[in-house]
Every structure is written in C-alpha cells, then in structure tokens.
Design brief:
By secondary structure, this protein is mainly alpha-helical. Helices cover 54% and strands 9% of the residues.
Length: 147
C-alpha cells in the first residue's frame, strides 16, 4: 500500500522503497556526482545506512522529484546557493503561492535586467562591426615568402 507523503504543499508523490544513489541519479536524469553535491549542500536529504565498513545513502521518491525540480530551477536561472533556502522551505511546506510569486518575480526582473545589458552589448558590437570596412575592400596583405 502506497502512502502519500508531504514534499511541499502540492506533493502527491507516493512513498516507494529507498534507493541507492545510482538509482536515484538514474531516475532523476543526473549523475551520481550531482546527487552527492545536492546532498552535501543540503538541497536533498538522504538516509544513511551502515553496511559493513561503509555507509550507504538511501534516497526516497521525494528526493528524486526534488532533484528533478532543482534541475528545472537551475535551467531558468536559479543558482544552487539561491536554491538552498528555497528547497528547505519547499520540503517544510512553507513555500506557498505568495512566496513562489515573489521568488519568480524577482528572478524574472533579474533576467530582464541581464537581457537589457546583453542587448546593449550586442548593439555596441554591431556598431563596431559596422565601423569596419567590408572584407573585400580592405587592402590586400602581401605575403612574403622565404626563399
């Protein structure tokens, strides 16, 4: 029997058995190193399980979904350092619609500012290219042969 677990206010992730890091990485579509990094940064939690002389990290389905969400957030411009408090709030169920709206609006403003600066840089480069003579009217360079 699968139970619904809380991984934020809108989660409907069903609890599955715990999986090792390789399987968690495969399911999330990332490398093991990525999962290790997210765990070390506190973005994703795991259960540590001793087995002989080693400790194994076990991840549940919530962690896998969170890893996928982190990758999406990174793809739209959030840095890992920005995501640490956001992921903690998400897991704790404190990331309500108003908080999400504020975070997304702030990121959008940052991206639009960057877009404006990039447009200015592109216009500058266009201007410099237009100031140069066309390639076919430039004086030919004489090649000196050693001989």
């Amino acid at each position: 029997m699968a139970a619904i677990v809380n991984c934020g206010p809108y989660s409907t992730v069903k609890r599955e058995r715990l999986v090792l890091i390789g399987e968690a990485a495969r399911r999330a579509g990332v490398s093991r190193d990525t999962v290790r990094l997210y765990t070390r940064l506190g973005l994703v939690a795991c259960a540590s399980r001793p087995a002989g002389s080693r400790d194994y990290a076990d991840y549940d389905a919530d962690a896998v979904e969170l890893i996928k969400n982190i990758k999406v957030a990174q793809s739209i411009g959030f840095s890992l350092s920005e995501l640490v408090p956001i992921a903690a709030a998400y897991v704790a169920g404190r990331l309500d619609d108003d908080e999400q709206r504020l975070l997304l609006a702030a990121k959008l403003a940052e991206i639009e500012e960057r877009q404006l600066k990039l447009g200015q840089m592109a216009e500058f480069l266009r201007s410099k290219l237009n100031d140069l003579p066309p390639p076919d009217t430039a004086p030919a360079r004489e090649v000196i042969s050693a001989g």
